[in-house]
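Journal club prep — side note

Before the paper discussion, L.F. wants everyone to see what a predicted structure for a comparable chain looks like in token form. Sequence:
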Amino acid sequence: MEEFNIFCISDVNEHPKQLPRREEGIYSQYIPTPVPEQLIIFGLGKWPSQVGELEVEVALTYKDVHLCLGMFTEQTRALCWERKHCEVPGIMSSEAEQGMAKLCIEFITGSTNSQTDKAKEENSSDKKINESTPKISKKGKTKDASKPVKQKRRSSITKGEKTPTGPTPKRSRTGKGKALHTDNDTTTDKENIATENGLKSSPETNKFTRMIEGGKPRVAICKDLTSRAPHPSSRWGHSMCMTDNNTAVVIGGQGERQQLVKDSVWCLNPVTRKWTCPEVFTESQKPEYRMGHTATYDPTLRCIYVYGGSKNQRWFHDVHMLDVQEWKWTLLKVAGKAPTRAYHSATLYRNELWIFGGVYPRPDPQPDGCSNEIHIFSPVSENWYQPIVNGEKPLCRSGHSATMINDQLVIFGGWDAPICYNDLHILDMCVVEWSKPKVLGTPPLPRSWHASCALANSRILIHGGYDGNLALEDTHIFNLGTLSWMRIRMDPTPTPRCGHQALSLPYYHENQEQDEVLIFGGGDNDGAFFHDLISASIPLNPALDHTMTVSKPEILENIENQMEVK
């Protein structure tokens, strides 16, 4: 049976948000002030046995002011609180207040229980014995995640390079990217299904998703949707985002002969799977062709913000706004010091653009470097600023992925050449605090320039990428609810690629039992670029891929190089 989890709805236009369990028996989440007109709070799963029939208070706290919203019991696990029917302290309801109130539900953890509670625990334990839930034991040898498969000889990064200026088709074979691993590489993929003590937490549940329990795992099916009709030219290093009107927009990138693409903007209708090339107008200055930039959709203003990127040896720090209703470019005039970045990540959170990491130009003797700083652009005030950040920052990197789930920004991978990473960090956007959780399962190989997107049930898809030597083809899922990795099977497996983009399509009905992910473009870092459009159906209970990924011993590679010289 599921552990007890608590969810909160503070906006009718948003999905329920799961409250993190900060400590044993304490669930909390931050809510902006003034407090909303209505809050719906409910719990799912097995009621904590140590609480029994006692009542549990649901309360808001802000600047030492306490407001009781209601009580939870084993029979009453949901409450609807409305501000108009309660006496709310002025400090919580004032429009002048722009702070964060703490929603907290604290369960009593005691060593003694009533006779009724003990009986319930005995009945519960009997039920657990009779359940037929399978347990997977830890068998088999540990996989070596540090050695990628040598599929065929490809070019790699030269030893003299510090950081990339972008995915480069031609590399010399004199050097090889190094891999930096996490401390969690010794756990096997089978642990993602179950552990002997059970999982610590369960995935988020909402009306759009449901986990298939006990069902047979299914293989993720891939379909090539590439049509002979007009389509974007082959490219990598482009951006792709979904807009409100169910349209995916592709912007920029680099294609054949390392030329930046001239057919910069394309639109895809996910339903008809047809591409169109809109006529785009310019109000002031048209953005230069570029790659390694980000494109982020703002549903409030119905526009796309294009920031940063590079063009040959040039680097950008400008912000352009694309109105997706009139298809018109506008160069934003901003205040504050704008960072110069490429191969960074950009995330829209509370109407502001959060930038993390990326490559930036640096004076000699080192031509460029990577960042681990957070910069925020406010479209409302049109200025840049840096927040106060808590916790231990990730190492400097570029080409990483940043995926938002609720208020948690999950950073994975990236590199600061020649070192590739496969570590995972989480930024709590509410309090701007970094954490590096201990994860279960075998993480993906170190990589950069991979594709990622959010799936149902608080999961994140990671596909492909570049390990410093090869383009990759594997697919992994990280479950934020259970903090676990799994490698899944794809049939057929897409061509190895990096510098591509992936996005998850919205759900069309409540009982949908799989996510549909669209993958577009990319390159193999060996001179080939792609324009194919792939649809991947990712089941809620996907089949695992137990393929062991190893590379040739270093001595064999040295022998090959010597034979080539002869």
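L.F.'s comment for the group: Confidence is low (pLDDT under 50) at residues 109-165, 168-178, 181-214, 550-559. Keep this in mind when we get to the figures.
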